[in-house]
Amino acid sequence: MTRINMKFAIMLIIMLSNNVELFETQLFSQALVNLWFPKEPNIVRVRTLDEVAIGKSVRILDFIGLVTRHGYPAEEHIITTKDGYNLKLHRIPDSPLSINKDNKKPIFLQHGVLGSSDLWVLFGPGKDLAFLLADQGYDVWLGNVRGNTYCRSHVKMSPQNADFWQYSYHEIGTIDLPNMIDYVLDYTGKKFLHYIGHSMGTTLLFVLLSTRPDYNAKIRLGICFAPVALFNELSPLFQQAINNYQNIMKFFNDNEVNELFPLSSTNIASNKILCADNTKTQPFCIAVLFLFAGSDPIQMNTTALPGIFGHYPAGISVLTLYHYIQNILTHDFRHYDYGYFIHNDIVSERYELEKITAPLALIYGAGDVIASRSVKTFNVLELHKRLSNVILFEEVPYKRFNHLDFFTGIDAKSLLFDHVIEIIEKFEAKQLNRSLF
Ligand SMILES: *[C@@H]1O[C@H](CO)[C@@H](O)[C@H](O)[C@H]1NC(C)=O
Ligand SMILES: *[C@@H]1O[C@H](CO)[C@@H](O)[C@H](O)[C@H]1NC(C)=O
């Protein structure tokens, strides 16, 4: 990646952000809709690199393959929610480097919008948080939520059916998350677990703990990366996209798009080519990422982009996006209101953040345009004020750290993950001390 390419990427961001009317133009022909929002993923998931190489179809490693290729054990557990969605829960139960073999403490990692459990294990041991936690002796569980690439399955409905996609983060937080947490606690015989969520992974925790306060006792410590619940003010780029929300909704309606950016063979194949190093098109890839995550050229490993795009974005319902749009337009954190876009009047219930009593650590990036704390956007600060049991409120010590750096930042280990492990160990030591004295 040359410096000129990166400059070009940043120029493109400015151009793109001034052209959100793009959605109205003929550019979005049916062919592009089919390419970006295909109804069938057509991906073959395999477990060894040998299998990836053979055949013509797009083959990617699944979570088990991504983990076991490094000599770590991995498991897949399938649970069915009370409303019929089949979810795949992943686990790294041990590490070749861990001395602690018994009485491991469960820790639960929850991805955000468009993510999957794969995002926590893309780079390997010594780099990804999931491997580092396993090395430290934790029993690592990784959630996947309805509609993502691992959870496009239901006891009755097919993802081809529009009803399959009738959910927002409300259903994920009130049904999927407690189902997954209870499964882990039952399976391990423990009373509580540590929780680490990124972005929507934090929204889900806030939704669960405020609507079902009995779950506060099941969260030993909740660590929130780039926490998202309140949008007081937006960065100018985001504001512009939001001002266009009616066009965006109309576009999705007209094209019967119910699922946002699914992981599919066409996306994987085209992104691999478009985003590769030394191509003229790579700046476009980077521009799109920076537009939504914040611009941080130093922490972005451009060589890793084609690999990342083999697993991300991994799909979510369009309704989840609409729920966030309601939050933004109303400056409030409420249940999804099915009448809001018709009447412009929000009457749904408020999530009562004051019911959240589990200890929380909030960690944000200064360069993040979503969960930000710039001069104009106080979203994270405001959230901190409304939560009663925040034991730690910190900025990642790198001033451009953006929304995606929590997974893909070149120095994420030294800037964040090592510190996170220290936070958990210190917290545990304190709890142990409390029970001794
Ligand atoms: C960048 O990514 C490539 C491909 O995944 C990897 O080989 C390389 O070590 C990475 N570089 C850094 C600085 O992390
Ligand atoms: C544990 O408690 C003792 C007595 O209150 C105190 O001196 C010590 O610093 C505590 N250790 C930790 C790790 O909190």
Automatic annotation (TrEMBL):
Entry keyword annotation includes Lipid metabolism: yes
Species of the source: Dinoponera quadriceps
Signal peptide region: 1-22
Active-site residues from the entry: S199, D368, H403
Family per record: Belongs to the AB hydrolase superfamily. Lipase family.
Entry annotated with the keyword Aminoacyl-tRNA synthetase: no
Protein name: Lipase
Keyword set, alphabetical order: Glycoprotein, Hydrolase, Lipid degradation, Lipid metabolism, Signal
GO biological process: lipid catabolic process
Domain Partial AB-hydrolase lipase intervals: 66-122
Gene Ontology MF, one: hydrolase activity, acting on ester bonds
